[in-house]
């Protein structure tokens, strides 16, 4: 049984040997390179663009501006439902007459080399009329603020109002009100984006390498924008150096590079550089909360009343408002609180547009809610775990309907025994174990948080499973892969059902040329959805093999079994026929017909091939998790050191514990980056001031504490056949909450720990003067 | 732009290439010699994905110019890999799940390759120091450090 086996990944060897093929490693004959000329202004009118000098430079092939794209080309559309109409805020691939953030594409320069492109960029004359830049969402919605879009700077103003919050607040024994701020930061994969597009004019075929995440969706969007048939475009995912939610969405370049290739009839390659990446990739988080939490005298939380402001940046992109939407829909978390109200404002500013980053909206909401709950516990004089214990949704109330929705999906926590997992987590860590409060002048604190994390979202997923004449198995997956380990996990699922070793099962993914429909990879969905499609396809292969063998050898199916890559008759020592043999029989046109063909159809002779599409569960499947950390704080300097970190979660069933653990630990690392280090800051005049790895700090090996995990398989979700929950986002989701609570515990202070990231300055400002 | 003839040894093989003075060594290795295992993550010397060994010392391929490589002995991840299969370091990284997307991996392999070429029994602190200039966005480093500790143990056991 390979499902659940802790096996090393099959894809690792090529990466370790330097044989991975990332987009920048690809080249084609007569290929030219593209460079995107971007706005240096956060907000300006473009009066004119003169590229004539640039075009004279030797080696320059073309300079495309908004004047070169079809006049009726619309903006890049949003691929998921939004709260209200956000279409007035969508981005065109090239700025038309106005730029709204530093980094907005204005022109595409194509030349024999990237270096020549950059030389040419210096020669493009653009006449800008600068406008006042707005970098604060609060400033943006003041009545006299410069309008960034005609529709106004307040893009969305919506919320939920469940139960009777007013009444609950009035009758509460305790209330706490706190403001929280989660800074702008983002995914920052180690590989920047890139594309290599080539166009075969004679056949009208366009091929684009470098896509990932949602290749079918992007292919369809591109077809619409180029006026081509979807089947005339192929998007291909190479090896991909991380996505974490940001990479692989349909960005301006995803139109511009194929467009340039089509116009020039030459292969065009664009490789983003890191500085460019900082201003061009979706930013994320950037949300402020005001939270009021109320409780009765018994420590039962009676209401959450929340105000949320999210800075969306200069445009709405393909993700729409999913970050505030998830935050608003899920704010009450794992607690049985029926009085819940939230007002959400989504605001446009002159900054890079935003989208999702691993645990979108959840990292943010968990931080605000769990910090507020600790404050409430302190105010009540109640132990922090005890307060949570009294409010967790009990197992018998599953499935729990929150009463909200996000991207038009109802928020339903489908399964789990939250109180049981909570107790196991506390015991597993030793939450109650005494510890030294002080060490060499440093103060030690312990913090925890509890939360639920969605997974397995999206309408459908599909796979095709093929067995060749030699018994080799290939999975053609509609989902994609950016380093998670799908080539191993998907092979494990198939291996366990048709009993072929993992090494004999190849996984092809992220390619619109290999399967007609695909959902893609996001929202921790591949194990859940692709896993189920593969389960069904594997059983389809098994059934087909047994039926074929039964017909060929005239033995009832019930007496046959599939193992070790062959069909066996019960009780016999030799296999009847290998899977490869079955595949040979089933080849179309094979004269060895199992039954006389009727008409000219050969229905049983379509290969040992099964395609399976499955529908997703509308609400997905939700994992419950607990994070706990011990943190040392130097009250003299504000310096912090996370001593140990612990994640407990119930994931239903692990497909490969090695990969589950890797997702959790790696996720914690990203969460720690967002908690302590990473921040995309803007100057008042709209320039990004943390635009290199020297300014934007990401965790290195010294920033990592030892992380331990407790992965439970207690309650299987019923919505998918494998009984799995996605684990991709459990790692980062609770980190800021647990760390904030631990630092507050160390300092015996709650002020100043509501603003991320926890820089030494901010921590120092939270130290009570008496301690300092 | 004037081209300069530059000769050096890479992975034990003598090569001679014509390069522009502004080309980085990483670009020369990748673009002209097809050694695409050396990755460019930032091109400003911070991420470490382009780490190679130049004259026995780890170096950033993005911070050296191609013309500076004249006469140098260079080792890239391709040269640090056995003809078939995986080296001790690579095998341990796989076993301990010290990689996910694989983009930082060649730099990580080279940093560890250098560490073990000068110190066969590094402590955990020495391992951390050796990879402290390498950014990995996927793993949280735990699997990488554990892999390196296993390599140290295995090298000790061999002696």
TrEMBL record, chain A:
SUPFAM superfamilies in alphabetical order: CO dehydrogenase molybdoprotein N-domain-like (SSF54665), Molybdenum cofactor-binding domain (SSF56003)
Origin: domain of life: Bacteria
SMART domains referenced in this protein's UniProt entry, alphabetically: Ald_Xan_dh_C
Xref: Gene3D superfamilies: Aldehyde oxidase/xanthine dehydrogenase, a/b hammerhead, Aldehyde oxidase/xanthine dehydrogenase, molybdopterin binding domain
Keywords: Molybdenum, Oxidoreductase
Keyword Transport on entry: no
InterPro entries reported in the protein's UniProt record: Ald_Oxase/Xan_DH_a/b, Ald_Oxase/Xan_DH_a/b_sf, Ald_Oxase/xanthine_DH-like, AldOxase/xan_DH_MoCoBD1, AldOxase/xan_DH_MoCoBD2, AldOxase/xan_DH_Mopterin-bd_sf
GO molecular function, one term: iron ion binding
Keyword Chloroplast: no
Residues annotated as domain Aldehyde oxidase/xanthine dehydrogenase a/b hammerhead: 17-132
PANTHER family (UniProt xref): ALDEHYDE OXIDASE 1-RELATED, XANTHINE DEHYDROGENASE
Name of the protein: Dehydrogenase
TrEMBL record, chain B:
Alphabetized Gene3D superfamilies for the sequence: 3.10.20.30, [2Fe-2S]-binding domain
Record protein name field: (2Fe-2S)-binding protein
Protein origin, superkingdom: Bacteria
Annotated PANTHER family: OXIDOREDUCTASE WITH IRON-SULFUR SUBUNIT
Pfam families: Fer2, Fer2_2
Record's keyword terms, sorted: 2Fe-2S, Iron, Iron-sulfur, Metal-binding, Oxidoreductase
2Fe-2S ferredoxin-type domain span: 4-80
GO MF terms, alphabetically ordered: 2 iron, 2 sulfur cluster binding; metal ion binding; oxidoreductase activity
Signal sequence, renumbered to the chain: none
